[in-house]
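Entry for the shared binder. Reason: the reviewer on the internal report wants the predicted structure included alongside the sequence.
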Amino acid sequence: MQILFLHDNFPAQFGYIGEYMADNGWDVWFGTQRKGAKHDKIKVFNYKPHREITKEIHPYAANFERAVLNGQAIARASIEGAKVGLNPDIVVAHSGWGPGIYARDIWPKAKYVGYFEWFYNRNSPDTLFLDEEKGLDQQLRTRSRNAAIMMDLVACDVGLCPTEFQKNQFPECFQPKIRVMHDGIKTDFYKPDREAKLKLSDLDLSHVDEIITYVARGMEPYRGFPEFMRALEKIQKRRPDVHAVIVGEDRVAYGKSLPDGQSYKKKMLEELDLDMSRTHFTGLLPRSDYLSVLKASSVHTYLTVPFVLSWSMMEAMSAGCAMVVSDTEPVAEMLTDNIHGVSVDMKDIDAVAYQIEYLLDHKELRIAMGNKARQAMLDVYSQSDSLPAKMALFSSLLDK
């Protein structure tokens, strides 16, 4: 059987399942815009829109035109792919950016699976949490972002969504089509090492006993970066030996950017009185170094508005980290307060700082919560269970 995954990035959410299916005899293909992407078990090819979106296009329609260009690029790439054996039985596409919107037309006999992460509602929980007042123009623009997603919802045989919280953002009439199946965590890789010391090529904290860690793709309000930095300032003033390791890029991955090319990192460093000798920004890290940070963490902080849940939170749980997290709905789906970690109102900076310090002061509690957090990942979210279940779902589609 042949399966095709489509995602602008590679390997994104489909790398592990693609490799697993290849190991189990499937002919696995992957279409991506990422240049130079390759895999020894997956046939990777590139698609690229033939032009940028129209400069003067109506702003409400910009995302849809981008999706159309992506879908058209897939159609063109499929012609060349057919010459070398591309004829999928199943197509799985990340929804929203458009690579799968014409899958039904390109491969009419194939089953189509949409991967859905978010539906843009007028009063979505993320914007309500951030107290962002949407004017009518912004409301209309937001609704228009669903155009390509709606095409996928109509066309797909089944939809996949990582969490119940994310599924609940979609219109009720489409929810019966959507299956909640998380991609799963590589628990045999993300595992604890209670004796670990942090020593990277350009950062040696092997002598440090208190390390607070923070991980996100970008540094932005959606992932509580300003709140974390403000809490860190308070903690540093009370604890002269504590260090913080911040993993991620100085950019905005979700939400609004600051004007005039400013960044939230620069803003926080200008606003706060931080000891930079104890504040370490690593940028993005190779997976092995990232794991080293998690293993050496004394307290890991994951703060987020009600939005798409980060893999990094679950990877930290699998690595046995003691967690201080925001008390938002997507987090609560994975982590029970005072069992797997400590939940806190991320807007309450004093409370965030207090809970981090409380765990720093109680090592046995940190270890106990970290062990329970890992067990929760082993019980429900390990790839040893999720990958066979997902492959079984794909196989079942071929019987219909």
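Summary line for the report: The first helix runs from residue 15 to 23.
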